[in-house]
Specification:
Helix content: 25-40%
Number of strands: 12
Strand content: 15-25%
Structural class: alpha/beta
Low-confidence stretches: none
Shape: globular
Distance between the termini: 29 Å
Bound molecules: iron/sulfur cluster
Largest sheet: 10 strands, parallel
Length: about 325
């Protein structure tokens, strides 16, 4: 099976995948998917915003950036008790992984103390833990590992070439540095990107090729469709067609066959048929719950019903 796992993918090769006849690409993705996973299983994660809004960064897609006039209001870091209440509810709804997101450029050391307590508490409930807190130093990554963190999410967002159009308050290399610190600390990596930010097909291929050149591949690869939020610079970004989105999922599956490919933000606006095609193209992870940080997500009941209609079951679930 190892011949399928490569770390030398080029942008041109990914472009060639996009250019395949749709059915050929899906067949290739689904064949690899079945080689590495039980194709009926979908891993379910829940994402909670533990510190919302007021972020000093300028990510053009993000309603939590303080500089954009959006409906998101800045809040303080949640208390340990409230986070644990949400984790208990997530577990009861079938989640096996609980992700905690904070709108920071990077965590301050005192904030990290509080997050470490949350990680400890969530793990004690029998859930896998994931955090997304911004950039991390080597020492901070090690502290999170000691607290028992299983996964760290840090997205590359888009291609190296297009990144400067989306974020100016940090650079691509800083993203890669944090990913290296996370990896060196022994924490699993969750890293993906967003489509629909006005990027070219070349940029989408560049994102996939950059992810697929990481060695090892990220264990989780979230592929997001931009949720266009009023007040952000990307509120009028051109919508990506459903078939192009499915091609992205398939390219992620083909290039990173053993990773969990997560259908992430933007599901609220996708038809059931599009989501079904995404599962066929190799997506095997979703976020459950009414909100993804601050943007809407399908209700858990709707997700359960859709999974039932497609004959999908929760991975590691009941
Ligand atoms: S994506 Fe994260 S870092 Fe960027 S503005 Fe939003 S909360 Fe801040």
């Amino acid at each position: 099976m190892d011949a399928d796992i490569r770390h030398d993918w080029t942008k041109d090769e990914v472009r060639a995948l996009f250019a395949l006849p749709f059915n050929d690409l899906i067949f290739r993705a689904q064949s690899l998917h079945r080689k590495y996973f039980d194709a009926r299983e979908v891993q379910i994660s829940t994402l909670l915003s533990i510190k919302t809004g007021g972020c000093p960064e300028d990510c053009a897609y993000c309603p939590q950036a303080a500089r954009y006039d959006t409906a998101v209001k800045a809040e303080k870091l949640m208390s340990l008790a409230s986070v644990l209440r949400e984790a208990v509810a997530a577990k009861a709804a079938g989640a096996t992984r609980f992700c905690m997101g904070a709108a920071w450029r990077e965590p301050k050391d005192r904030d990290l103390d509080a997050v470490c307590e949350m990680i400890d508490g969530v793990r004690a409930l029998g859930l896998e833990t994931c955090a997304t807190l911004g950039m991390l130093s080597e020492t901070q990554a090690q502290r999170l590992k000691s607290a028992g963190l299983d996964y760290y999410n840090h997205n590359l967002d888009t291609s190296p070439e297009f990144y400067g159009e989306i974020v100016t308050t940090r650079n691509y290399q800083e993203r890669l540095d944090t990913l290296n610190h996370v990896r060196a600390a022994g924490i699993h990596v969750c890293c993906g990107g967003i489509v629909g930010m006005g990027e070219s097909e070349d940029d989408r291929a560049g994102l996939i090729a950059t992810l697929a050149r990481l060695d090892p591949h990220p264990e989780s690869v979230p592929i997001n469709a931009l949720v266009r939020v009023a007040g952000t610079p990307l509120s009028d970004a051109p919508v990506v067609t459903a078939l192009d989105f499915v091609r992205m999922i398939a390219a992620a599956r083909v290039t990173m066959p053993a990773s969990m490919v997560r259908l992430s933000a933007g599901r609220e606006d996708m038809s059931e048929e599009t989501q079904a095609l995404c599962f066929l193209a190799g997506a095997n992870s979703i976020f459950y719950g009414p909100k993804l940080l601050t943007t809407p997500n399908p209700a858990a009941d709707d997700d359960r019903a859709l999974m039932g209609r497609l004959g999908l079951v929760a991975m590691g679930g009941e």
